[in-house]
Amino acid sequence: MAAAFSSHLPALQVVLALLAAPLCVVLRRPGAAWMIATVITWALLAIAMVLLGRVLETGTITYALGSWPAPWGIEYRIDLANAFVLVLVTLIGSVVMPYARASIPAEIEEPRIYLFYCMYLLNLAGLLGIAITGDVFNLFVFLEISSLSSYVMISLSRDRRALVAAYRYLIMGTIGATFYIIGVGMMYQVTGTLNMVDLATLIPNLTDNRTVMVALAFLCVGLSLKLALFPLHLWLPNAYAYAPSAVSAFLASTGTKVAVYALARILFTVFGGSVLIDDFGLQELLVVLAVAAMIGGSAVAIYQSNVKRLLAYSSIAQIGYMILGLSMASVIGMTAGLVHLFNHALMKGGLFMVMGCVFFRLSSVQVEDMEGLAKRMPLTMAAFVAGGFGLIGMPLTAGFISKWHLIQAALEKGWWGAVAVILVSSLLAVIYIWRVVEAAYFKPPPKGAAEISEAPLSMLVPMWVMIGMSYYFGIDATLTLDITTGAAETLLGGIQ
Amino acid sequence: MSPEQTILLSILVPFLGAALIAFTWANPNIRETITLITGAILFYLVSSIYPVVAGGAQPSVILFEMLPGLAIAFTVEPLGMIFAAIVSFLWIITTVYSIGYMRGHDEQNQTRFYVLFAIAIGAAIGIAFAGNMLTLFVFYEVLTISTFPLVTHHGTPEAKRAGRVYLGILLTTSIAFQLVAIIWTWSLVGTLDFTQGGILNGKVGGLTATILLGLYVFGIGKAALMPFHRWLPAAMVAPTPVSALLHAVAVVKAGVFTVLKVAVYIFGVDFLFSIEASQWFLYLAAATVLIASLVAMSKDNLKARLAYSTISQLSYIILGAMLASDLGVIGGGMHIAMHAFGKITLFFCAGAYIVAAHKTEISHMHGIGRVMPLTTAAFLIGSLSIIGLPPMGGLWSKWYLALGALESGHLVIVGVLMVSSLLNVAYLLEIPFKGFFAGAEDNPEPQAHHEHDPDHDHRFDRKQPRQIKEAPLACLIAISITSAGCLILFFYPDPVYNLMRLIVAP
Amino acid sequence: MELIGLINYWIVIVLMMTGFYIVIAHDNLVKKIVGLNIFQVSVFVFYITMAKVKGGTAPILAEGITTYSNPLPHVLILTAIVVGVATTALGLALVVRIRDAYGTIEDNDFENQDGEP
Lengths: 496, 506, 117
Prior knowledge:
The structure holds 3 protein chains of 3 kinds.
Chain A: H1 2-7, H2 9-27, H3 30-58, E1 61-64, E2 75-78, H4 80-107, H5 113-132, H6 136-155, H7 161-191, H8 196-202, H9 210-227, H10 236-242, H11 245-270, H12 273-279, H13 282-302, H14 307-327, H15 331-362, H16 373-376, H17 378-392, H18 398-413, H19 416-442, H20 457-475, H21 478-492
Helix pairs in contact in A: 2-3, 2-5, 3-4, 3-5, 4-5, 4-11, 4-15, 4-20, 4-21, 5-6, 5-11, 6-7, 6-11, 7-9, 7-10, 9-11, 10-11, 10-14, 11-14, 11-15, 13-14, 13-19, 14-15, 14-19, 15-17, 15-18, 15-20, 15-21, 17-19, 17-20, 18-19, 18-20
Chain B: H1 3-22, H2 28-54, E1 60-67, E2 70-75, H3 78-104, H4 110-129, H5 133-151, H6 157-189, H7 206-219, H8 231-234, H9 240-267, H10 269-274, H11 277-298, H12 302-322, H13 326-357, H14 368-371, H15 373-387, H16 394-407, H17 411-428, H18 430-437, H19 473-491, H20 494-504
Antiparallel strand pairs in B: 1-2
Chain C: H1 2-5, H2 7-25, H3 29-51, H4 72-102, H5 109-114
Helix pairs in contact in C: 2-3, 3-4
């Protein structure tokens, strides 16, 4: 029985969340829905860790859904790259769920809370499905599952601006997904298969075929919209700023990261990495866009007075770091991009959770309203400072590890400009983190500010766990680096 | 206890002390006692490593691996030994001084002050004992962050502005230059361990070495080499104990210590000599020495004058590194010790003037030596040490720097050293001489505003004439010990000299 | 001859661009959803066109028939249609909520009411 159970773990990884979602709707009560969501997320984390362990020991796992063999059936294929993403997504979920217990009722009306948990579980299922699948169309299905549920999650906020933000995200996200599916269709037209491994044997030989090239273009644009690569990032700032804080924390740490993984999978596994990047100027294009994101995102962040929007623009810049690493198509570059995927998820998740605590007490996330907050909410603001250090890249934080590798990768490729841009954007990060820190620590509280106390323990503990993890993986990065280096080598697959 | 355990303990103790101090906010006496005990323990631990290092060994310990192939590791070699010994000894003295100063000045947030001080000292010890450039960088940044709240302690708009300059310059230089240099070195050479003879020799070409040298030297902003020196005068807005220990001893010495370590253990003295560019930095350091001295002469605010004097003196040590000669390195290392004692004495006196006499401008200090004779005599002793006259220890470091300049054929530098000594005379001796010999009636009208906490108690205000008395007892004790140190180092510089010799001739 | 034979693909392109244009050019939120639907329909037509094999019949096993059209794209399209329906439903639901909250469903009027972009 246990053996049967454990051999179907890849399927369970997705199915458990899918089954639990309607359960939340049936049960209706907020407490029960939260309990289901939390327990299922923790179970999924356990499954993801088991799968990662298996991949580390024995190599790539394949699982044929319904026992239909590939390439006719849908296959789940878990190698180091996606095992890593599975653990990341479930880990973030596991920390955000306990946090959500107190945070969500402050930001979503009570009759709708169970709907939130249902959507969260669907989103989780979608993200895990994107990561685990080995079939490009299956990826589209899960992409849309996760996207639709995230539109709903964002729109559940009491703030009416969230509705418009969700709508705009819906329009842009659907266009992106549709582009993706056009690309898939074109690839199918030429090769006759939807299985990633099968495509990987066929496509690299067809790169002079115009249909394949157009397919690549559609796929890249579609996924770039989902990962908010400049200039297709317009949906992100408002969506993250006006969504409920737990939603921002979860989405900021997982949604775009999984899209980056999907892009890496398409570019490197399906299209065979360096063949593509060397010939077609795609590398130059990605580098230029990444650099623009890094500088532009950081620069615009400085001028935001809504701190959640500030963090959103900061995310756009950090995604630029990841794409820069990816575009280098070298083992160190890919490692840097992938490890930053993980590290940034931890840091940004923690920072959005800080803002959730602030909103919980202040009902506002404007910088002006946060003046003097350090005295009234010391633990929360200390977490902000700690997370901020990570964004800047101070040693002992996870951000330092990513930055180190990124700079090393750029130096080894001789990309001096990229090195300069990385440094400039770190310094810009100092400025926007400083704005918030200065308001909280150096200014007196605004006149007539109500007496507030620290955030409740059920929110403080997960927040500090997240920040603590970002420091743990900054002090001892050997585990994350081993895994991501292995993942990078798998993705680059002998072409280096 | 083995040397390895002692090393780890020495780094841990200040941080543990900081944690303990944080809980004593209700009781100032316990707080200060814990600080003193922590300082004493630290000094005991550090001095117990001394015999091992003096015997030629370099005990080392690896803590854990941070990046694959790069660990947080500690190695105690002679230069680090000197730095750690000075920092730990002077921490105790400064704590004694701070007790007198902070209480006499009725400062706010004293617990925060002592906690951050302990953390900063811990970071300085970490820098002193660092075994590779990564470890050093980690503690370097910890030092920047932990000293920032100390600089902005008073919370006034000037303090905040100064804090911005401080953080801005130090973070920008360390992230934009030093970090790149470190990663580049790692990528080129594959190791960041401090090794006798350097790790770059034979691995990098001339142009790369030049750029690397530039990135390192400009990246070590704490050494206050022009044009990245502005943070030092800005940091004078901090309470005087902060200026004394951190900005005359710990922070700035960490900077020049790092420069020396990079010069000796990353580049290697011989390789450095073969790089053309080390000449340019030599001249830049020489220029800093002179320009800073000239600016010092124009400053009326005592702490500002001492700040620029510090910038000038730090460049002496950078000179020692860039001369790329054995004697120059010895001179630079010795100057770390000599300047520490001399400058801390001067800053202690400046603080005494503030807390006892409420005077910050030199032009207001005529005749002050008659009411504060001990303080002003100590100021004289400290000045003589900085100038480099016998019977003060400062003579020896200048002596070796001059010898080093001769050894590497830079006669101009000898001239620079002499001119700078003359400038030192001009801007330092003015204070004790006017203090003892000028009349108090020469003082211009005292200004209402002075640079400390506005809520503090003005006991002698308005109606009665100001009663100036000597500095608080705790301050005087501290001042006497450090002045005695200047004298002692003249007659007994051997410990420092012998340690430095071990570096250049193992 | 070639061009006429490819008419399906021309229609795909026309529909795709029309839909896309409507999404961008119109401010009315419902019209944007209409445009999105047209855009998605173009993809459906694309896939279905792809499935037709020259000389193939419906993909039902029968005696004597050797060439069948490809059923797989039809399956894919069914999935995509479902996704499209869900998206449309969600989009329209959002429009209803927006109308309740703002009183208008013209895209550029929201900023004026909220006072920030």
